[in-house]
Amino acid sequence: MSQSTDTSSMSLTMYRISSWLKSPRPYLMFIGFACILAFWYFSVEVWKLPRFQDMPGLTEVFSEWFSKDPYYGLSIYTPEYYKHIGISLRRIAFAFFLATALGVPLGLFLGWSKTLREYIFPLFEVFRPIPVLAWVPLAIIIFSGSETPVIFLTFLASFFATTLNTMLGVESIDESYSRAAYCLGASRWQTFLHVVVPGAMPFIFTGLQISIGVAWFSLVAGEMVSGQYGLGYLINTSYMMIEYPKIIIGMITLGVIGYVTSALVRLAGDYMMQWRVRELALGDN
Amino acid sequence: MNMIGEMADQSTTRGAIRIEDVVKVYDPDGAAVMAVDHCSIDIPAGEICMIVGPSGCGKTTLLNAIAGFHDITSGKIYLDGELLCGPGNMQAEPGSDRIVVFQNGALFPWKTNLENITFGPMMAGKLSKEEIYDKARSMMEDAGLSGTENSYPGEVSSGLRRRVEIVRALMNDPKVLLFDEPYRALDSLTKSVMHEALLEIYYKNKVTIFFITHDLEEAIFLGHRLIIMSSRPCKPKKIVDVDIPHPRDYSVLTSPRFREIMNEAKGVVNEEAKKAFEAGEKEG
Predict the structure, then answer these.
(1) Which CATH architecture has domain B8-97+175-283?
(2) Non-local CB neighbours of A46 within 8 Å, separated by 6+ positions
(3) Which of A4, A174, A182, A183 to mutate to test the interface with B (most CBs of B within 10 A)?
(4) Hey, are the CB atoms on A194 and B108 less than 8 Å from each other?
(5) Which residue of B has its CA nearest to A273?
């Protein structure tokens, strides 16, 4: 029993990776990727299906992407490529940080105080279904420059997802935990810190996972209408300049980076919720 | 087993509960439901008092009123002569002199066993961290919990979890432990181990125990006294003294006296269970 207590988050991650490699899952994943790439290759370059004639082919995209002297001026060897990535990442970081810093505390208090919820939650229910794209004109009117509107749009959807999930997290906590805390002499504030905050943590991280996903979604929407540089901007301008391979490069890059950021959020969650990770690890055996 | 216990009532002077004419009426959607009806129970300090009744008869309502989780409609509840709740203040303030051990367990899953056990004293902030941890370690050792300090509750067996929860309560030096059918979900083997462990802890710590159950065997094995409740509204129907001397162990279960008490209580309990069942049929 005492050895298991030394299990650090690192070795747990290693354990996860090694058991993942032993399972059939990586091979199934490989087959899945191979299928979609094969479909792309055959439909465009071999069968030349009617609606695919303008679509850039697999070989064209990948040779452009990894070329030292790209025809359209964008590959992993050009600084411009990293500038697009860097600027998008910076916007995501700002917006996600802001949404978390405001959304988590607000969600906690909304879940904790019934009165506060009466004031704010109905407002929330009206604002939440408004799609980010509908906010674009207002964002441009209200915020100056090209950077702040994009960050605002990216922030918005993240903020709603984080707040809502945090609030649900507080509501999901079994009443007997706070009762137990009161029984053991904890004050209301101590109960909030020691029961409400950690108890809501699993939902908070579910919220953050959703939040980082919708952040990328709204970022691209924002970058398509405003701002210079960024992956959304890259995709949109490549379309207008008829540089189609760059669209696909931008899309795949978005997918990979989006996946990595959401994996990072998950890792942070595992790190902060050791108790949950260990319970789940026991369940696996 | 090392048992230093005698009959509890002789050695303990704190933790006497007096429930006086308590009524609790719930009023959901205007249709008043009487959960507890003019109920009076006197529990001397240090007694293990078993509250027996069919599920949903209102026993937990009584426990929640003592713990201070909700108010009562009328009546009074005293702890050691001091009014917990009554006219003027119908809801008791929850506090560490009366600690509940919950039906499904309420150890904080995000704290290690040691952090759970030290929770009460740490919140009170009266002792230094070292003193609290020393006390916790020695109590854990007494309860056979050494080596599980840094495990999370989710990593240990359900039987161990229950023990951690009781130690967490005892750390605060409570006058009364309120058990709300804590062993309901355990299998019968684990249950019997838990019963003996509970008695052992009781012999060492001498607190008053208010224990809700619908398991008659559990009630007779543990209790000094059974209070058999009528079903909705809840009020004492019959009191059975269990005159089997403490300390007890599992051999008690096969003794003739145990069987006699069982027979005496069973008729009353079954009658109430049948009433509760029929009432449930009507509601359904």
Answers:
(1) 3-Layer(aba) Sandwich (3.40)
(2) none
(3) A183
(4) yes
(5) B110
Q: State the first-to-last Cα distance of chain B, in angstroms, to the nearest integer.
A: 49
Model confidence band, residue B53 (pLDDT cutoffs 50, 70, 90)? confident
Q: How far is A149 from chain B (nearest CA, A)?
A: 39
In terms of residues, how long is chain B?
284
Hey, is A214 helix, strand or coil? Answer: helix
Average pLDDT (A241-257) is 94
Which pLDDT does position A32 carry in this prediction? 95
Q: Are the C-beta atoms of residues A254 and A85 closer than 8 Å to each other? A: no
Name the residue in chain B with its Cα closest to that of A283: B155
Could you tell me if the ipTM is greater than 0.90? no
Non-local CB neighbours of B277 within 8 Å, separated by 6+ positions: B54
Do residues A162 and A103 make contact, with C-beta atoms less than 8 angstroms apart?
Answer: yes
Q: Chain-wide mean pLDDT for chain B?
A: 85
Question: How much is the average pLDDT of B52-73?
Answer: 86
Beta-carbon contacts of A86 under 8 Å, excluding residues fewer than 6 positions away, are none
pLDDT class for A284, splitting at 50, 70, 90?
A: very low
Is residue B6 scored above 80 in pLDDT?
no
Query: Residue B143 — very low, low, confident or very high, per pLDDT cuts 50/70/90?
Result: confident
Name the closest residue on chain B to residue A178, using Cα atoms.
B106
Q: Which residues pair with B52 in a beta bridge?
A: B213, B228
pLDDT at A18 over 80: yes
**Is A7 a residue whose pLDDT tops 90?**
no
Render pLDDT for B76-92 as a digit per residue (tens, 0 to 9). 999 998 888 888 888 88
pTM score, two decimals?
0.83
Mean pLDDT computed over B98-112: 91
Q: How far is A264 from chain B (nearest CA, A)?
A: 21
The closest alpha carbon to A279, from B108, B154, B162, belongs to: B154
Say which of A180, A195, A279 has its CB closest to residue B155.
A279
Name the closest residue on chain B to residue A198, using Cα atoms: B110
Phi, psi at B261, each rounded to 5°: -65, -40
User: Which residue ranges make up each domain of chain B?
Assistant: 8-97+175-283, 107-173
Residues contacting residue A23 through CB under 8 Å, at least 6 positions apart: none
Say yes or no for a CB contact (<8 Å) between B102 and A180.
Answer: yes
Instruction: Check if A183 contacts B (Cβ < 8 Å).
Output: yes
Q: How far is B225 from chain A (nearest CA, A)?
A: 25
Taking the CA of residue A7 and the nearest CA in chain B, the distance in Å comes to 11
Average pLDDT over residues A62-81: 90
**CB-based contact, A3 to chain B, within 8 Å:** no
Q: Which domains does chain A have, with CATH numbers?
A: 1-55 (no CATH), 64-284 (1.10.3720.10)
pLDDT of residue B11: 59
- B137: contact with A, CB 8 A cutoff: no
- Which residue of B lies nearest to A200 if distances are taken between CA atoms? B110
The CA distance from A188 to the nearest CA of chain B, in Å, is 11
